[in-house]
Amino acid sequence: MTTPAKPKISRDVVWREARELIWLHRGRLGLGFGLMLVNRAAGFVLPGSTKYLLDKVLPPRLVHLTSAELALAGHRLGLVAMAVGAAALVQAATSFGLSQILGVAAQRAITDMRRAVQSHLIRLPIRTFDATQTGQLVSRVMNDAEGIRNLIGTGLVQLVGGLVTAAVAMCVLVSLNWRLTAMTMVLLILFAGGMAYAFTKLRPIFRVRGQLNAEVTGRLVESISGIRVVKAYAAERRERLAFAKGANKLFRNVAASMTGISATTALSAVVVGVIGTLLIVVGGHDVLAGRMTVGGLMTYVVFTGMVAAPLIQIAAIGTQITEAFAGLDRIRELRSWVPEDADDANREVAGVIVGHVKFDDVTFSYQPGVPVLRHISFDAPAGSTTALVGSSGSGKSTLVSLVMAFNHPDSGRILIDGRDLEGLRLRNYRSRLGIVLQDNFLFDGTVLENIRFAQPGASDAEVLEAARVAHCDEFALRFELGYQTIVGERGVKLSGGQRQRVAIARAILADPAILILDEATSSLDSESEALIQEGLARLRAGRTTFVIAHRLSTITSADQILVLEAGEIVERGNHEQLLGLDGRYRKLYERQYRQALDRYVNPGEELTGAAHLRP
Hints:
Elements lengths: L10 H14 L1 H18 L1 H13 L9 H55 L4 H6 L2 H13 L2 H4 L1 H23 L1 H48 L1 H6 L3 H53 L5 H42 L21 E11 L2 E11 L4 E6 L5 H8 L7 E6 L2 E2 L5 H5 L2 E4 L10 H6 L7 H10 L3 H4 L19 H15 L3 E5 L7 H15 L3 E5 L11 E6 L2 E6 L1 H7 L2 H15 L17
Parallel strand pairs: 3-8, 3-9, 6-7, 7-8
Antiparallel strand pairs: 1-2, 1-4, 4-5, 9-10
Helix pairs in contact: 1-12, 2-4, 2-8, 3-4, 3-12, 4-6, 6-9, 6-12, 8-9, 8-12, 9-11, 9-12, 11-12, 16-18, 18-19
């Protein structure tokens, strides 16, 4: 089966998407930037007061000061303390506001992104879900979107704030000692180049990490979903080893990224150390030479820290933003896959559907050059029942998937009431379908909710009537909570036959024009099957029905039976006509008749289960 096309997403596209995302949340980000500037300005008060405090407020020889000078120094000291205290309060308030405003903005952006990705995901063709692990798709929706908090949240603002702080601090350093600052600038330029190179190398690693994380999640989801099969075949060790293999690959990727991050952090430490050495050597000589005061040197040291600290912070935040871009890469890739209803605006509204279905020379293949159906042509009048018979792999399920528009013909046409199915809006058309598949899926809700899934607006009375026709009363009313009983994930708390009846009730409630029954009674015992057949007979009345059944006794009343082999119709007609042909259908029928006889070992036992099979 072919996987969805995955076009290469250019960096410009991702940058554009990031800009659009930032612009969408520009209000909160703008407020965040404003608070950040106030916060950073307040942060300059304490280091900015150092030179004034040492050179003006606290002279080195206090014993020679008069009482008036001491009083003035005490007054100045009080003013400095008040300014520093007020700045600290401003910093605390703006930090709290930043985390609240940008934290909410980030979570809102993550939620919006997840909604958009999930909305796009469920519009993709069925082949996408057939070709991709469920866990990988879940990871795209949940994990990849999580990284954008570093763009919309405090990450981007802190990155810009760090740059602003470093730039202002650098201006102060130039005013204090331009020669020492020039030397520092050379080191910082080299550091910036090293950081840019590191981020270029880290981004592909983060992108691969997202893929590996999706694969590991996919394997975990599969093993949990199939836990009964795993335990039945004592395959716990195999699943453990398979998961461990994926987890180890993910670990190696994380280790590689940590090496890169550690290298950038180490580079930051080296730059800070070299700058500190310059301060001691060059700054110390300037103080001894009278070109700087002690207060000026101390201020220079503090402001150097205000340059170095943001740079180290930028290294960490830059890594997070690089990871966010990698997540945007993967999200953009998924959103580039074309949804099946992309052209619905140009398609015809289906309107009222009578249910006349016609296949006109239809050929279909999952893989190019390997057709599954070959030149299929037949006519199913409105209200008729068409049964599909054949061995496994003959194309029966593929044929009904074409009726449901899950797949589309490579050539030929499918006509619905004389209109090409390709030209009808999918959502509008599918709303007129009722489906009972061989593998019935129930959601983790109540019995009532699962039946109502077909018609969310249906009343309780309508839902219960559909349930009664499908004979759900016989098991649902035995539960303590009745129809409010939770069925569990995939309906695990119900038996196969009970799930089947809920699915049939769901199809009855849909009141479809076209009904698909794929082994609709396969999970029922003989008694239940007899009851369901009665309900299905009422459901089929007046509706175009397609039935896939291996038990030929269930389709003897069909208006036409199509016998498929290797993707071709080899026989067609009603039950009596096909028996008279003495061909493939008759052989299948007689084989089942003999198998039914073989189930009765007592010669005198009444053959109630086989009598209806006798030609």
